[in-house]
Amino acid sequence: MELSPRELALKAAQILSEKKASDIEILEIGDLTVLAEYFVICTGTSSTQVRSLAEELEFRLSELGIEPHHIEGHRSTSWVLLDYSSVVVHVFYKESREFYRLEHMWADAKRLDVPEQAQS
Questions:
Q1: Strand spans (E) along the chain
Q2: Shortest CA distance to 79 belongs to which of 45, 106, 105, 51?
Q3: Scanning 1, 18, 26, 100, which has the fewest C-beta atoms within 10 Å of its C-beta?
C-alpha cells in the first residue's frame, strides 16, 4: 500500500491511539529540516506500553507493506524511534518525553490535527 507522508503520519497516529497511546502529536517538519516530513510523537504510560506501542505500530504498518528503515531503542523502556523516512515516530515514556521536549525543539513546526478517533 502506498501512502503519502501525511497519510502515513495520520495512520501511525490512528494505530497508536487504538493501542491507547496518550498525548499524540503530529508535527509537520518538512519545511524546517531534511530529516523527515513529519514527526509523530506519543507517550506510553509504562515501559511495557512503550515497547508494546512500538511493536504494534511496526506490525500493523508491516501488514500494509510499510517497513521501517531504521529502529532505535527497540529494547529501551523510555524512548523508541521508528524511522519510516518521510515519517519518524517517537514513542516516549512520560519522563523521557518531558526531558527531551521535542515539541519545544520543533516549536516552529506546523501541527497537524489528530483525528478525533486518534485522540481517545
A1: 22-28, 38-44, 70-72, 79-83, 87-93, 110-112
A2: 51
A3: 1
> Is residue 88 within 8 Å of 38, Cβ to Cβ?
yes
Band (pLDDT 50/70/90 cuts) for residue 120 is: very low
The amino acid at residue 73 is G
Q: Is 16 left (phi over 0), alpha (psi -120 to 50) or beta?
A: alpha
- Residue 42 near residue 21, CB atoms below 8 Å: yes
Which residue, chain included where needed, has cell 508535527?
27
Nine-digit cell string for 22 = 496518550
* Mean pLDDT confidence for 70-81: 88
Under the banding of pLDDT at 50, 70 and 90, the label for residue 118 is low
Instruction: Report which DSSP code applies to 109.
Output: S
